[in-house]
Write a structure and sequence with these properties.
The protein is mainly α. Helix content is about 65%, strand content about 0%.
């Protein structure tokens, strides 16, 4: 008998659901004017951003460490320092993720858990005062 609790990766539904979540996130960022501030911080083509975020989220949630295998330790804050991230950018990022969580049909309690975990990380990424 396996007494281990399922990982967040497993609770979410694995790669298929995480890919759907990340694609929805970037689709919202790319099309909704409410997210223009964070969209402007990204390259014109979002394919690389989509893949890196997908790879990161798989490992962060307890699944395969695709990001680490490709790039080493994520060093999130250091990698984002070149980009001005304040309260507005943090809130846009979280708003975009909240919409993507709904679109991905992730159960509401799991949406709250995931968004709560990501909110701390998003706030930690701030590097400018608004």
């Amino acid at each position: 008998m396996n007494d281990a609790l399922p990982t967040l990766y497993e609770q979410l539904g694995g790669e298929t659901v995480i890919r759907r979540l990340i694609d929805s996130f970037y689709d919202h960022m790319d099309s909704d004017p409410a997210f223009a501030g964070i969209r402007a911080l990204h390259p014109p083509q979002l394919t690389g951003s989509r893949d890196k975020t997908f790879w990161f989220l798989c490992g962060w949630s307890g699944g395969p460490n695709y990001y680490i295998e490709r790039f080493g330790h994520p060093r999130l804050r250091a990698r984002h320092l070149p980009f001005p991230i304040g309260v507005s950018e943090r809130d846009q990022w979280l708003g975009c993720m909240a919409r993507a969580l709904v679109d991905s049909e992730i159960p509401e309690p799991l949406q709250r858990q995931l968004l709560g975990s990501l909110a701390g990380t998003a706030d930690w990424m701030r590097n400018k005062n608004d």
